[in-house]
Amino acid sequence: MNQTKPLKSLTLSFPSLSFWVLPSIFFRFLHLHFRRSVLVRKMDVRRRLITTVRTPAGEHLKTQKLNHNHHDSPRDSFLPLYLTNAVFFGLFFSVSYFLLHRWRNKIRTSTPLHVVTVSETAAILSLLSSFLYLLKFFGIAFIHTIGTRNKLHNNDEIETIESFTEQSTLPLPKKIVIEDEDIVNSVVSGSIPSYSLESRLMDCRKAAAIRREAVQRLTGRSLEGLALEGFNYESILGQCCEMPIGFVQIPVGVAGPLLLDGKEYTVPMATTEGCLVASTNRGCKAIQACGGASSVLLRDGMTRAPVVRFATATRAAHLKFYLEDPLNFDTIALTFNKSSRFARLQSIQPTIAGKNLYIRFRCSTGDAMGMNMVSKGVQNVLDFLHIDFPDMDVIGISGNFCSDKKAAAVNWVEGRGKSVVCEAIIKEEVVKKVLKTTVEALVELNMLKNLTGSAIAGSLGGFNAHASNIVSAIYIATGQDPAQNVESSHCITMMEAVNNGKDLHISVTMPSIEVGTVGGGTQLASQSACLNLLGVKGANKESPGTNSRLLATIVAGSVLAGELSLMSAIAAGQLVNSHMKYNRSSKDASKIVS
């Protein structure tokens, strides 16, 4: 008897456990598919395939109506769908419990498990049938699909009907089904929020198409020129763009090779400005003819500056002194660094304004641009500071002392992201033959335009000819944040005659290049390909941060080439002629078919 007690305990607990585990698993599936199944049940009332055809003006669109056989319609089933599901769910769980109960009794009486009665055989068959039905209902509906397709091909009855063009003069996408039309109408009426289409349909491309059609009907304007097909909408879900209706096509050109630090790079540039790629390419040619350019990374650290408030300026000053005390830095850094294995706190710069305190944190971020990373670290520190400063009121995680996506002196002086200086010496003969100007003319123009002219304009970080052109083109091509072009284009271009006035020394100093090779738009297919072209795709596993730092130097080197070429064109009086040749189209855009 002592030997059978553990077995008895097992047989008593296992069926009971299974009785609760199995239902929980299936109800979990039911929860995951609830929204989709509800939508499917609504749309299964009727299914007709509509094919829109372009017709001359004034004619109605013609459609094809697919009449299913009587036995194919879900509404003609013996039982409604929800009752059928309830029957099979009940059957599955009841026979499962019955079989587990009989199994327990057989173990108690030492009866072989393979010996089954008629009732047990019926229960096993019922279990298998209900299991197959539930499996089919939750996505594996190949039997129903094959049968439906055969009947659609063999029993279609075609008739001509009036189109729904009375509701909208805009054509629907080809092969849009009636349930899609119902969803479009629901979005237009507001009963289905546009932002919820992806979660409701579980199909990002279909959601974009329906949203696009709804926008056309609501605005009464066509989106025919906006591309829809050929894009992976799943790749942007929850990270790059919300409520997509298509994608904009921007041509990508290449400049180079750019000889930088002894290596050649073919630089991708996404732009719609004529002459930009050609001009940068000419600058690369001049640099390569003179042995290439060299670059130095001066600083690498992303910043975030929250603003906190106290009841008095004295209390704000107490926190300022606490943060500036070197003895406290290690403790704060330990708290900050817990946010990521790449984030490493470098410095803290607190600045007080009355009873408000602005705290500028700087940290390394590996190969990521790092805004999210540094923000998480800052949040950890703020939570930690609340222990010793419970009266601290956090007004905002960003107080604009960072400063992100705005021209700011703090970025110009202190830097943000990657700070890079890049230089090259251009030989006199190259200046004359390739750039079509002289060293003296370039030095004078740079002094009067980039330095004096920018000072008169009160420019902040804009002591250059067109650094933002090159930065923006490379940023768009490689999946960077285009808005960060504002501070990333901070640049001062210097030119000086060297070697007894024969050759030209040119340099660009850029204190705030904000780039990354992981995260955000860098993982999209096109942008990832451009990063791969430069050899900086993804994270550098051996030395984290190497790829993003290399990308920053390539940006600076490309800006150097662009500055050299544009300044030469202005000095030689070729700017207007070049733009008239390369930045003007003689084609009639209205006759171009996309």
Automatic annotation (TrEMBL):
Pathway: Metabolic intermediate biosynthesis; (R)-mevalonate biosynthesis; (R)-mevalonate from acetyl-CoA: step 3/3. It holds the Pfam family HMG-CoA_red. InterPro entries: HMG_CoA_Rdtase, HMG_CoA_Rdtase_cat_sf, HMG_CoA_Rdtase_CS, HMG_CoA_Rdtase_eu_arc, HMG_CoA_Rdtase_N, HMG_CoA_Rdtase_NAD(P)-bd_sf, HMG_CoA_Rdtase_sub-bd_dom_sf. Coiled coil: none annotated. GO terms for biological process: coenzyme A metabolic process; isoprenoid biosynthetic process; sterol biosynthetic process. PROSITE patterns: HMG_COA_REDUCTASE_1, HMG_COA_REDUCTASE_2, HMG_COA_REDUCTASE_3, HMG_COA_REDUCTASE_4. It catalyses: (R)-mevalonate + 2 NADP(+) + CoA = (3S)-3-hydroxy-3-methylglutaryl-CoA + 2 NADPH + 2 H(+). This is 3-hydroxy-3-methylglutaryl coenzyme A reductase. Keywords: Endoplasmic reticulum, Glycoprotein, Isoprene biosynthesis, Membrane, NADP, Oxidoreductase, Transmembrane, Transmembrane helix. Belongs to the HMG-CoA reductase family. The chain crosses the membrane at residues 12-34, 79-100, 121-143. Its EC number is 1.1.1.34. It comes from Lupinus albus (White lupine). It is found in: Endoplasmic reticulum membrane; Plastid membrane. PANTHER family: 3-HYDROXY-3-METHYLGLUTARYL COENZYME A REDUCTASE, 3-HYDROXY-3-METHYLGLUTARYL-COENZYME A REDUCTASE. One of its GO terms (cellular component) is plastid membrane. CDD domains: HMG-CoA_reductase_classI. It comes from the Eukaryota. One of its GO terms (molecular function) is hydroxymethylglutaryl-CoA reductase (NADPH) activity.
